[in-house]
């Protein structure tokens, strides 16, 4: 064991690395190389050694990745900027089955995720896996046609890294969408829930897309998360849905992200309802946390694609086919809502 430890580098909380052969609680890891930064640090070993002078290996973690540094995000942003003449200030992340908005863009430039340096790839049905940049009613927009989820095997920082790419490209406001199960008994399948707040379950458990050394160029070490969902944008959206005669299918509520890929047990749903959750999903929160960290304004909504099953005596089950089917039926309304909102967001942005 000591020969293993002798080959490890200690990284202290300030990020400086040194070789270590003893001491109290220390964090040991391989020195990150440029290769690791761009390809992911798949084989990283981490060990915790503790005790009064005598060292013991308590934990070895294989497969954990070090979040991308600023320069790596910059490389992705520069690649996209060099491939388009558009300079979007508004970004959209399309949830399951909701990617059709991106197909509405005029004069669009399309970048499959595989072609973008340092980008993850989409693996889920209903997520095309392309960045589409173009004009929506004349407003430059960049749309993620497909997102990344923790259950695909991505760490939270990687699920949310495209938000930082957007930021470095000049995006200031973001619309985040998802498909979710309706837990509030007043919600119906097909309802649209404007998200007014979230519960960050992964945060409760000590994980965060912001975990690790903070780079102030992105944002502060301790960002506030009250008012994460911009009140003006929510009010704007409510006026739009009233104009569209959709008020009776629009709700406002609290979203929770669980890790998935399992849908919830009855007991889990009962617990979530007690703590005030209205809709349950598997995304959005990491992206919103990273967007707020870097100072973006956020608007988000869930399409309620299924009613959460709270009874034991039923054969009904939640399933992804239903999620995609319901999203497909509502896509026209959702696209119009997003389109009208984007036009208003652009006007407000111009007026300061
Ligand atoms: O990407 P979103 O959050 O819209 O997708 C939801 C959560 C799972 O990925 C999937 C489950 O059906 O839909
Ligand atoms: N966790 C979760 N995610 C969903 N996405 C769409 N429907 C659901 C659901 O019922 N639960």
From TrEMBL:
Its EC number is 2.4.2.1. Residues 89-342 form the Nucleoside phosphorylase domain. The keyword Transferase applies. InterPro entries: Nucleoside_phosphorylase_d (IPR000845), Nucleoside_phosphorylase_sf (IPR035994), Pur_Nuc_Pase_Ino/Guo-sp (IPR011270), Purine_phosphorylase (IPR011268). GO terms for biological process: nucleoside metabolic process. Keywords: Glycosyltransferase, Transferase. Pathway: Purine metabolism; purine nucleoside salvage. GO terms for molecular function: purine-nucleoside phosphorylase activity. GO terms for cellular component: cytoplasm. It catalyses: 2'-deoxyinosine + phosphate = 2-deoxy-alpha-D-ribose 1-phosphate + hypoxanthine; 2'-deoxyguanosine + phosphate = 2-deoxy-alpha-D-ribose 1-phosphate + guanine; inosine + phosphate = alpha-D-ribose 1-phosphate + hypoxanthine; guanosine + phosphate = alpha-D-ribose 1-phosphate + guanine. Belongs to the PNP/MTAP phosphorylase family. This is Purine nucleoside phosphorylase. The lineage of its organism: Eukaryota, Metazoa, Ecdysozoa, Arthropoda, Crustacea.
